[in-house]
Write the structure tokens for this entry.
Amino acid sequence: MCRHLAYLGPAVPLGEILVRPEHSLYRQSWAPRRQRHGTVNADGFGVGWYAPEDPVPARYRRAGPVWGDGSFADLTRVVRSGALLAAVRSATVADPDGEAAAAPFAMGTYLFSHNGAVLGWPRSVAPLAGRLPPADLLDLAARCDSALVWALVQRGLRDGYPAPEALSGAVADVAAAAPGSRLNLLLTDGASISATAWGDTLWYRLDPAAGTVVASEPYDDDPLWTEVPDHTLLTATRTDVLLTPLKEPAP
Ligand code: GLN
């Protein structure tokens, strides 16, 4: 399964968050410390970030392992931002979509990532997909479980639900249709972060001076890192983190 991370705080070179820390997301692509499923995250990677005075983030994604992309390390040395979302991918099922299947997925001002797997994909969630307007399915970002989960979240956002409700609604629907699925979702609009812990690890680090990081696992051994209990919805800004228990799936 993937590792993912979102950051809100003072503008810094992306590499200060993604590459420089001892156990950074970059290193987690081959040596994650707390990954429960899968070993390496070599099936693509991506980062999305916000630039001043433009609410729509830019993305840089590639189909291969992050360690094979010299341009990534070089770009992240000089590109600066105060809001980003990044992921390294371990594909649940081999698919032909490469870069398109690498998070972050994007819609308007939003960036999204899914760490986990939909059990029984694709048949288990066919009834859920059938409830989406056909145009949403034609717009699917890629042919993988995470893209369908993203389509469900986008539908919630377009229907007017606030980001945390759009995430928790998608988790409830997919967990009911495909019990045992792992649904750690991460969503940001550059001003706040929403995330779910549902079957895999999730941590956050809140530091008034250095901002907020929400990540699959800590990128260093700073005692400020706090683990999020399973089945929890997290909402965060630069200065606050709020945890709310999610309803347990029906037995
Ligand atoms: N199900 C996701 C995919 O196939 C996997 C994301 C992850 O946790 N590896 O892309």
